[in-house]
Automatic annotation (TrEMBL), chains A, B:
Species, as recorded: Nocardiopsis codii
All copies of domain HTH lacI-type, residue ranges: 12-66
Matches recorded under PANTHER family: HTH-TYPE TRANSCRIPTIONAL REGULATOR GALS, LACI-RELATED TRANSCRIPTIONAL REPRESSOR
Keywords for the protein's UniProt record, in alphabetical order: DNA-binding, Transcription, Transcription regulation
A Gene Ontology molecular function term of the record: DNA binding
Domain of life: Bacteria
Protein name: LacI family DNA-binding transcriptional regulator
Record InterPro entries: HTH_LacI (IPR000843), LacI/GalR-like_sensor (IPR046335), Lambda_DNA-bd_dom_sf (IPR010982), Peripla_BP_I (IPR028082)
CDD domains registered for this protein in UniProt: HTH_LacI (cd01392), PBP1_LacI-like (cd06293)
Length: 349, 349
DNA sequence: GAGGGTTGTTGACACGTTTCAATCCGGGTG
DNA sequence: CACCCGGATTGAAACGTGTCAACAACCCTC
């Protein structure tokens, strides 16, 4: 007979530990949750029993009893969105410190799937959630609060403070910074290459760009042209080349500001295929500062969002909402930062 | 008095639904779990009560009772690893179809954190887990099986079939394909730019490359040089340029096969900075086919791994392990595919 | 009309934890 | 010596669900 453990072991719970330590279940519970209330000697006995029996606590039990679980949801638009990974890391780290587990749920841009996921969170009696809402319709989230699960909205600065917290980045400031940079380089004909204007973030970036011209005493209508594509991915960026360049060399933009790095990278590929050089023939600015913006040649000038801090802050806010009884909803706004690389240069007539 | 719901509602459980429907709790449970066992009329009554009371099931309760929760863990090396997102999508989709929630846990390349995460899964009595192990030490996973949570290893083909399932991609075949491609283009001096050889995947790719030479009747030792960097990221790729090019134009490789797209992209950036053109002066092959491999100029020839299918298959295997009592551990091996783009060209002396 | 089978429903219990009032004990005080 | 106090521990009662043996009602057959 070896000491090899049975493949299915008899469930060992708090009660069995109690028996082994010659103590009541309540005491074991105290050892686990409020060790200060229990005498040194008994604590040691119990801890010994715990490790001898290789006891692991059953979180279903405690969630059931306390009415709330110790996991939080991270409801994300799209796992493949490069913006997401940075945020996830921030949320993960902060949650780990608070002893919370993160449940990743993917809405895949679908309203229907978002609803299913919200429901799942409610069933789990999740402690809270960090959510990137799929669209302007917040009814799912309101229902969730009503179920007793609080949340923090990500990148949705327009959430009223009486319904929930939000953490976002100032898109207007980002557009403004990009605009100023290009104007400073002497560019006067700028195209804003974007996804659907239905997306609030995109609209704000556009306004920022226009305000940069206004601030410089120039009429935005005369200098900013818009090319709108149905999606914010590289394929759309590449496809947009024709439209962007339409009108011949005299008409074509001196610089393109893209609502997204993905679009920008696609566009640069398309430009290269057309024999146009960046930044000699045309400057390009992106938005997001994805990891690989630094790897293309030339490097992509872009507006960096503090992804990690965004996630981390959202989770911290959620923590405060969970623990601090006097919590008031808060709206945190980060300011993005322009990262200048090789894809922009002074205009040479 | 408006009909606005109280902000904290009285907990409504299966019993309250039962009362409302004039039926016993057991019946409500049956309606939820085995609707076929209950008569049409009562089913409708119960369903009505459920929606009137806006009942949502409490998964803590059911997990406690059944001893197993309905969520699976996805234990990932590093959320920022580009390989991961594709896998995650596959796991997500398959899990969603099976009605399972995915708990994302990030090991951040740390053995210690992996251990904490495994423990968390045990506490949650997770149904199962899809795991990318942090290193060769499988003791955490064995402990997890012993706790009754089964798992599927990802990209770890060396897991013995008597301890668990595994899904992986044939790294040897990938190296072989890359090697054949380059040899076919007439290249004879090839450098293998890689991360630490301690990583099994990397070793296998190297062997594949060497075997391509052997198969062609050439001595690998004479044609393959190795440059080993401490990590598999773009910075290391860029930094490696000096070593790769050492020895002057007559000695330098005609082509570089990188263990990783990240390395390859970094290398290409470094080569560009040195004034060397890809593929005219030197050909480059990567590994992984990350999204942006198609966006750099020239496009990166690379070995594509079926990330999505990998995740999906892992989750499917896990499902079979959970439901099928006669389950035998399985080892699935995918074959990678070479994607030829602009970064490789025939050797021109 | 008694017996037997089928279909639907019931009650009660168990899962593992936390909580809280009640109890126990030892030492200090009047 | 009676009393009380405070710290340490106990025991029992929930939390919401799933299971299962038992029971009720019904139909069919001989």
């Amino acid at each position: 007979m070896s000491t090899r453990p049975r493949s299915t072991r008899p469930a060992v719970g708090i009660t069995e530990v109690a028996r082994r330590a010659g103590v009541s279940p309540g005491t074991v519970s105290n050892v686990l949750n409020r060790p200060e209330r229990v005498a040194e000697a008994t604590r040691l006995k119990v801890e010994a029993a715990i490790s001898e029996l290789d006891y692991v606590r059953n979180s279903s039990g405690s969630s059931l009893r306390s009415g709330r679980s110790d996991s939080v949801g991270l409801l994300v638009l799209d796992v493949t969105n490069p913006f997401f990974t940075g945020v996830a890391r921030g949320v993960e780290d902060e949650a780990a410190e608070a002893g919370l587990a993160v449940v990743l749920l993917n809405s895949a841009e679908s309203q229907d799937r978002q609803r299913r996921n919200v429901r799942l969170l409610a069933e789990q009696r999740a402690a809270g959630a960090v959510v990137m809402p799929v669209d302007d319709d917040l009814s799912d989230l309101l229902w969730l609060s009503h179920q007793g699960t609080s949340w923090v909205a990500l990148d949705r600065g327009d959430v009223a403070e009486d319904v929930g917290c939000s953490v976002s980045v100032d898109n207007h400031a980002g557009g403004l910074a990009a605009g100023r940079h290009l104007i400073g380089l002497g560019h006067e004909r700028i195209t804003f290459l974007t996804g659907p204007f239905a997306i609030e973030q995109v609209r704000r970036r556009h306004e920022g760009l226009r305000d940069a011209f206004t601030d410089a005493g120039m009429d935005p209508d005369a200098h900013v042209r818009v090319v709108e594509q149905p999606m914010l991915n590289p394929q759309q960026g590449e496809r947009a080349v024709d439209t962007v360049l339409a009108g011949g060399p005299r008409q074509r933009p001196q610089a393109v500001f893209c609502a997204n790095d993905q679009l920008a990278l696609g566009l640069m590929k398309g430009l290269g295929r057309r024999g146009l050089r960046v930044p000699d023939d045309i400057s390009v600015v992106g938005y997001d500062n994805v990891d690989l913006a630094d790897l293309v040649h030339p490097g992509l000038t872009t507006v960096a969002q503090p992804k990690y801090d965004l996630g981390r802050t959202a989770m911290r806010l959620l923590g405060s909402e969970l623990n601090d009884p006097g919590h008031r909803h808060e709206r945190v706004l980060f300011t993005p930062e322009l990262v200048v690389r090789g894809s922009t240069a002074a205009y040479r007539p």
